[in-house]
Structures are given as structure tokens and as C-alpha cells.
Amino acid sequence: MEAWIPVIVAIVTIIPTTVTVIGNLWQNRQRKIDVESQKRQAERNAAKASIENAITRDILRTEILNKMPEAYDDIMAEYEVYHANGGNGKVTREVKEYSAWYRQFKPSKQK
User: Where exactly are the structural domains of the chain?
Assistant: First the structure.
């Protein structure tokens, strides 16, 4: 029976330590996921704001100043960032509507 005492002591010592290590690893993983999620959300929100501002600026530029729209490439680049970070829905619809609106100003290529 006395031969089992060191084994029991080792098991009693190892189990709480193992549980603590696993718990800390899990918490660190969750923190990393939360930070990544917050970063993606911040990038998505920044791209969304940039897209909406550029669309508004382009429409005002065209409607009020009678100038050609010029932000199409910037809007599409920001949309790629927005979409890559999980965005869709309202902004996707706005970008599609903007693209259709923008196409009316592109000169047609006639041969």
C-alpha cells in the first residue's frame, strides 16, 4: 500500500496542474480569436464608411457639379476589403446600385 502513495501524490499534483495549463491555453486562444474578430470588424466598418462616403461624394460631384464620377476604383477596392472581412448585405446592395449608376457614364467602346 505504501508503494502507491507516491503514485497517488503524483496524480493528485498533476491533475490540477494539467487542468490549469489547459484552461490557460483555452483562454489565450479565446483572447486571440476575440482580437482577430475585433480587427476584422474594425476593418469592415472602416471600409463600409469609406464606401458610403465615396458613393455619396461621387453622386454629389455628378449631380451638383456636373462632373464625371471618379471614385469607382476606390469603391471597388474598399468593397474587396469589406467583403474579405465578412461584410455583405446593405453595402453590397449599395455597391451594386452604384456600379449600375456608374456604367451610364462610361463611354462605350465603338469600333
Answer: 2-102
